[in-house]
Amino acid sequence: MSYVTTGSSNTVTSGSPLHLNIRILRDPKEAIFLMGTFTIIGLSEIATGESLRKMTCVLSGMLVDADNDSGSGKIVAFPYDDSNPGQRSITLNREDKRQYTHLDLKIEATTATMATLSTHLTLTFYDKNNTDNSGKPILNTIAFEVHKIQTPLKIVSFTASRLVLQGGDKPVTLQWKIKGDNYTYRLLKGLTVLKTGSKSDIEQEFSTIPTIGDHVFTLEVTQDGKVVTKDIKIRALGKSEISTVANPIDSEIVNFCASKDATSLFGLMFVENDNKTHIDHIGYNTEGFSSHWRRLELTTTDKDQLKPFATSPMIHLKNTGDVFGRVLFIGGSYIKPFACANTVAIVDLDKEGDKVTVISNLKWDARMGHSCTLFPHGDAVEKIWLMGGVDEYGNALNDVWVSGDGVLWENVNATGTKNTKNVPAAMPWDARCLAGITTQLDDQGNKKALWFGGGFTEIGGAETKDIWVFEKGKWTQLHSSNIAPFSINNGTYLSSGLGFIGIDARDIGATGVAIMGGYQYKNESKNGYFNKIEIQPNGSFTASNAVVSAQTDIFNTIDDAYVVTAFFKGSLWFMVYTNAGDRGIIYSPLHFWIPVVTTRTLILS
Fold first, then answer.
1. How many CB atoms lie within 10 A of CB 93?
2. Do 197 and 185 touch, CB atoms closer than 8 A?
3. Are strands 205-208 and 561-568 parallel, antiparallel or unpaired?
4. What whole-number distance in Å separates Cα of residue 96 and Cα of residue 76?
5. pTM of whole model > 0.85?
6. 376: cis peptide before it, omega within 30°?
């Protein structure tokens, strides 16, 4: 005759409340008639300390011939024994003549603690219905297996103190946090193992000095044969540089944006046939400094619908569950005069067949030369912000519209709240077009402030050389002192590009915004340039030339120009559009600028 524990629960999660139910039945099924002492051994394997001391162990049973739950009741509770914390025993009342179809032993504690993946509790008791040949009750022993549910294996974080740096003499410290039980890890560079360890390690970091070049470090974590990995890419440079090596080989990028989650770039790709350029596909690049772009095909109908939007502001949106998400082309052209529109083309990258939907007659005035970006609004969800531009009559605008999907839009006041009036709310900054826009990030990668500045009073008009910052529901004009408003390059050379460039290592918490040249008066000799504003934690700032080791002739334009920017993988990415009159719109290759070597940039990937 034996006993079984069919119907029991036998799993615990370390660090969580402990709940075990051990059901004891005889096999073959017969009544259990308890007598003598009932003992539980091994409780210290599943709980420790105060949790073990306050653990409750209660034995109940279902009475024979009971036809409902009223036949179930408590038999006894086991007391705690200071002299033997891991064991509970109790001697049953000799006068108790009740018999049970099964027993339930419930063990509960505030916190489960198991050092191994499995253990067992030993239960011993006497059953008057189970005797030896002489009729004497025998000691019954049950070894009850308890299994620990492992914490799901996860690399919580894998970070580096620097990701773009001057190589050869600057150290980088890699740090990581891992969630899980009984894991081991390896830190690798290629096939070379740099460090190994396990969960018991207190220190989970490694320092190295990368040589000049690109380096990939891999954290590999193993638990019971399951492996998870995470990579960090570090670029060590000898100097700051501007590069176009990320352009695809088989097509041209005519428009681009960074993805909403900053893990890739999306581009509208052209190909040339019969000496004419044509929209071909949407490309995406997850590697950054590489010419390897993957393709998302467009139908002929898609291509025809996107023609008017080729140089319109491009924004990426992605919801939970999306694979690629959507790219939106918003309104009229960045740069082509009077190519105004109040429409949005939405390209659903996850859709088979025709991907493009055009939404017409939106609430805001048709415009071109406007600026768009993603920035939190209202419930802190990132939304599209559309700002300024000129209408079809050439009038500059100073309104702001926001949308979560590109279909439903609302006009906002200067505080960022919804405008309930029938006319668009005016902003504190002067109406303008061809203005630069960017978002400032904090050191965790969260969007902290929106920057907007530069531009013109109209196409070909006077410069608007101020910069405004929107933060915590308020617009503030950037001042170079407590009195004088900041003037881009002293007002002598307009910047039409703003771009976030990271966190300055010389003053942790300071951030940088690049001011990029984009316009030159005719018949005047002006050089292209990069300037940088460094924002200190106390709100003060300094402006200076940003050193680059490559020529910036791309900015030596003689006509209106617009610079499209994005911050991706620690670098400032940009394209320059130039209005060349009868020659149409000239667009540059895609460039990226790796900032000066004294800057610790923030990588969002």
1. 12
2. yes
3. unpaired
4. 11
5. no
6. no
Fold of 154-237: Immunoglobulin-like (2.60.40)
Closest by CA position to 139, among listed 3, 246, 319: 3
CATH number for the segment(s) 241-600: 2.120.10.80
Q: What are the pLDDT digits (tens) for 560-599? A: 778 898 888 777 888 988 887 777 888 889 988 766 444 4
Kind plus residue range of the DSSP H or E element containing 241: strand 241-243
Between CA 279 and CA 274 the distance in angstroms is 14
CA distance 588 to 309: 17
Burial code of 547-585, b = ≥16 C-beta within 10 A, e = fewer?
Answer: ebeeebebbebeebbbbbbbbbbbbbbbbbbbbeeeeeb
Domains of the chain, by residue range, sit at 2-148, 154-237, 241-600
Q: Look-up: residue for tokens 């899980």?
A: 180
Give the tens place of pLDDT for each residue, 467-526. 899 999 999 988 766 566 777 655 555 556 777 765 543 344 445 666 666 555 444 544
DSSP, residue by residue, 351-418: -SS--EEEE-S-SSPPBBS-EEEEEEETTTEEEEEEE--B-TTS-BB--EEEESSSSS-EEB-TTSSB
* Ramachandran class of 218: left when φ > 0, alpha when ψ lies in -120 to 50, beta otherwise: beta
User: Bridge-partner residues for 252, per DSSP?
Assistant: 270
Domain 2-148 has CATH 2.60.40: yes
User: Is it true that 2-148 and 154-237 share their CATH fold?
Assistant: yes
CB–CB of 107/22 below 8 Å?
Answer: yes
Task: Please give the helix or strand (H or E) that residue 474 lies within, else none.
Answer: strand 474-477
Q: 345 pLDDT exceeds 60?
A: yes
Q: In b/e form, how buried is each residue of 422-453, taking b as 16+ CB within 10 angstroms? A: eebbebebebbbbbbbbbbbeeeeebbbbbbb
